[in-house]
Amino acid sequence: MLTDLALSPNPPRELRADACICGAGPAGITLALELARRRPDWHIVLLEGGGSGVPSERERLLYDVGVGEKPYAVAASRRRMLGGTSAHWGGWCKPLDPEDFRAPADWSVPDWPITPEELAPFLVAAHLWCEIPSDRYDPAEVRARQPRRFLELPADGPVCERLFRFSPPTRFGTRYLEDLRGQANLDLFLHANLVSFERRGDRIVSASASPLGGRPIRIQSERFVLSQGGLETTRTLLNLRGDASDDGEGLRSPHLGRHFADHYGVRPGSILASEELGYRRITDQETAVMPVLAPSPSALDRAGRQNVCLMLDPDPGNASLPTPYARNAALGFLPREFLNYRAQMIVEPRPNPDSRITLTDARCELGLRRARLDWKLDPRDVESALGFFNELSNLLAQTGQGRARQTYQAAAAQLASAMGANHHLGTLRFSRDPKDGVTDADGRLHDMDNLYVLSSALFPRYGYSNPTLTLVALAARLASRWSAQAPEAQP
Amino acid sequence: MITRRDLCVAALAAGVTATGFLAPWSDLRDYLLPASDGSGLGRTFDLMLADLDGTQGVGRLVAEGWPAKGEANALIARLEERLEGHLRDPSALQARLGELVREDFSAARTCRVDGWLLSQTECDLAGLRWHFFGNAAVPKQASADVQPSAAAPAATTAAAAAPSDTESGAAQAPAAAPPAIVEVTDWGPRTTEQGSRFNVQPDGHSGLWFVAPGVPSWIKIRIDGQESPTTITENGLTSGLFGSLQDRLLATPGNYRIELYDPVKDIAQPIGELVVRPFSERAVRPDGSRSAVFCPVTSWGPTETTAGTAANAQPDGAQGMWFLLPCAPNNLQLVFGDDRLPATRTDRGVTARVPLALLGSPRSVPLKLRHERSGEELAVGIFEIRP
Predict the structure, then answer these.
(1) Helix (H, G, I), strand (E, B) or coil at B208
(2) Is A162 exposed, middle or buried (0-12, 13-18, 19+ CB in 10 A)?
(3) Pairing state of beta strands A369-374 and A66-67?
(4) Which CA distances in Å does B205 have to B245, B246, B250, B305?
C-alpha cells in the first residue's frame, strides 16, 4: 500500500513492523520487495523522504550541504524522490573485480568482510532487479565474436580486459511502483522524512517520520535499515551519535563519516592503435556492452596501485601523430590501419581519512544538524592511473600495436577541478573487526543490535565499477539472510 | 675537422633542397637521394629513411632538441653499429629496425616527443629523416602530380615549413616590449550592458580591479581619458566608474579605453577597453512577460553526444557546455534534465560542466538556465544523448 503523508488526510499515527527501511532508492526498494516476498509473515515499512516526482524547493533545502575547499555538486548527486538516484543514473553496471575485495597492507583499510564468492549468487538477483540482459562478464566471449575490437594482450602481461553491461537504465521508482503498491505486507510512505529514533540501550525501538510541517508517524520495528544514500545515511547516523565521543565502535566509531570518496575521471592522453578497437560502448548479441582495459591482477598486486579502467573514444581529427606514421614497418608497427583515440579513465579513489562528512551547527527544517562535506583527493589516485597508462603505452609499443601520448599532468589545479560521478562511498565502511569499520558484514552497526546500513558508503575499498549493481546485490543478500532462504527471489 | 660523413650529410641536405626546385619529380626518392653514398649507411638505408612517412612532426621536434650540430653524424655512427649486417637488404633492414624499436621499449630506452612515448631508435630515425628530408612527404609511388612547391626545405629552414599543429607559437612570437609603467596581468570586469552598473560598491560606483603587483603608489587609472579615483592594493589597483563618468559611459554603448597613468612622468600605459554593449531585450517567458534577468540564448553547444561519452570533454571527462547570451545574472545553475549543476557567467554568456555520470544512457535532456536567487528559469533547448 502507498500512502503520501503530504496528501493523506488521516495517516496512521503508530505502526508496527518487522523491518522498517528508510530510503526508497534502488537498495531500499530491492530490500523491501525481496523481504516482503520472502517473508509473507512479516510487515515491511518503507519510508521515502521525497515524493514520486522532483522535490520542491523546500524539500531540496533539507539536503543543503556545506562543502569544503573542493567543490562537489551535491545537489546534482541526490534525488529526494521515490527511486532515489536511479531517476538519473546512466545504468552502467559491472561487478567489482575480485581484487577490489582486498586492500593492500599499506592502505590501512580493511578487506571487504564478504568475499566475491559469497556475493556472487546475489549478483544474479541484482541483474534481474536492474534488468540487465546478461550476467556474463568475460570479455573473452565478446572477443571471440568480435576479435578486431580488441588488442592482442599477452596472458601474463600488465594489462587485461574487463566488461561493463548496461541497465536500460531501470528507474526503480516507476519500474517497481506497482509491485510496491500491490505487495500486501508492505507499506510505502512518501514524504516521510526520518526525524528521530527512540533508542533503548543498543536497540532502536522506534523511528519517527513526518512530512514537512505535518504530523509525524511512529514506527516500531524489530529492525531498521538506513538506505538513504551515502551522504544522508551518514548524516542521520552522525545526528544519532550527537555529542557522544568518536573513540568507540559502531555509532561511536572514529571511521563514521571518514573516507568519503567518489569515482572521478582522468583523461591521460591519446592512443594511436588499430582502427577498429571497441573499448567503448558497443553492441554484442544485440545488447550494449563496454569492454575496458584495466590492470591485470598480477600487475595490481605487484605495483600496489589502485584499480582503474580505460576506455577509448575515436578521435580521427587528432593529427599530433598522423596515422601514416603507423604504416612504417621499420618503426615496428604491425601491418594494419591505425586510428587516433582519446583515452578516458575512471579512477579508483584511495580511501582517505581526511576526506569526510561532518555536521555543522546549522539545522534543517526537520531540526537535524546539517552536513558538511570535505572531499579530498589523494594524488596517488592519478599516479596510479598514469602508471597504468604508461604500462599500456609500453605494451602497445613493444607489440607493434600502437603508441600512446600522455598529456595529463597531475597538477593540483586539475585535481581540484575533478568532478565526482555521484557515487558516495566509504563513510560507513563494513569490517569484520569492529575497530576497522562502522558496521559488520550485514551492514549492522557494530554496537547496535538492530540498526543496519545499506549503502555504497559501506564499501571499504571502492574499485572503479559503478556501485549500484553491487549495492542491489547486498540488498538481496540481506533479505536472504533475514529470511534464511536460498538466494533465488525474482523481481 | 670536417669528416667524410659531415660532407655526406651536407651533400644529402643540399641535394634535397636543390632537387626541390629543379626536379620533374618522376621518382621523388631518386631525386631526394644524392648519387653518392648519402648518409654513409648506404642507399638501402637512405631509401628507408626517405620512406618514413608521417614522421615529420616528431622528427622536427627531435631534431630541434639535438644538443649539437654534429648529432646527426653521431646518431648515424651509432645506428651503423646496431644495424651491422642488415644494411643491404630492405626487408632485413626493416625487420632489424623493428627489432631495435621493440628492444628499446623493453629496455626503457625511450624518448617523449610532444607527450608521445617513443623508442629512442624511432626518435633517432625521425630526427634523421627530418634532418635530411625536412617536411617532404615521400609518395610510395612517386608521381608527376607531386608539385615542386612541396619540396623539402633545407634543414636550416625546416621549422618554417613544419606542420602548423606542432609549431611552437611562442618560439616565433616577437618579444613583447616591457610595459611603460607596470605589467597588468589581469583585470575586470571588461564588459557590461548599456544602463547596467557592474560590481556595484557601497557608494554606488561600478568597481574595476587590476592585478599589477608592484605598482607605484602614485599611479592612477584613466578611463576614456578621464582620471578616476584609484586605490593601490596589495596586488594592484582598484578603480571604477564614478558619478558623471558612470552615467555617461553606461548611457552610451561603445568601447572605452582604460589605461594606467603616471602623473609624475606624464606617461600612459594602455590596459584595454571596457565594452558597454547595447541594451539587449530580455527573453520572453512562456506567458508572454519579459524575463527579469535573462536575455535570449543566441547559440549553445554541444547539442548532442553519444551515451557514455562527453562532447567537448574536460580533463576529468566531464562535458563542457557553453551558452551565448548578451545578459545573464550571477548565481546561475544549469538545469540538466532534473539535475541542477553549477554554472558560471562569463563575458559572453554562461559555461557549465556536466559530469560524465549524467551522460551514461541515451535520452533527450531538456536544458534550462536557472537564476538561483530568484528561481527564474530560461528554457534553452534539448540536449540529445544518442545510443
Answers:
(1) strand
(2) buried
(3) parallel
(4) 10, 7, 11, 44
Q: Give the residue on B whose Cα is nearest the Cα of A407.
A: B115
Closest Cα in chain B to A345: B317
Q: DSSP for A300-345, please give it.
A: HHHHTPPPEEEEEEE-TT--SS-GGGGG-GGGT--SS-EEEEEEEE
- Quote the minimal CA–CA distance from A390 to chain B in Å: 9
Q: A291: pLDDT confidence band, cut at 50, 70 and 90?
A: very high
Q: How far apart are CA A183 and CA A32, in angstroms?
A: 10
Give which of A63, A32, A35 is closest to A49, Cα–Cα: A63
DSSP B241: E
Nearest to A329 among B94, B337, B361 (CB): B94
Is B318 within 8 Å of A400 when comparing Cβ atoms?
no
Query: Coil, strand, or helix at residue A479?
Result: helix
* Chain B residues within an 8 Å CB radius of A290: 308
Cβ–Cβ below 8 Å for A417 and B355: no
Give the pLDDT confidence score for residue A305 in this predicted structure: 87
3-state secondary structure of B106: helix
Residue A262 contacts residue A375 (beta carbons within 8 Å) = yes
Question: Given B313, B342, B357, which is nearest A422 (Cβ)?
Answer: B357
Q: Do B308 and A280 touch (CB under 8 A)?
A: yes
Query: ipTM value of the model?
Result: 0.83
* Pick from A229, A165, A123, A162: nearest CA to A469: A123
Q: Which residue of B has its CA nearest to A318?
A: B165
Q: Which of B8, B9, B5, B135 is nearest to B61 (CA)?
A: B135
Determine how many CB atoms are found less than 10 A away from the CB of residue B47: 17
Contact A421 B356 (CB under 8 A): yes
The total of other beta-carbon atoms located within 10 Å of residue A447's CB is 16
pLDDT in tens, A53-112: 888 889 888 888 999 999 888 888 888 899 999 998 999 999 999 999 999 888 889 999
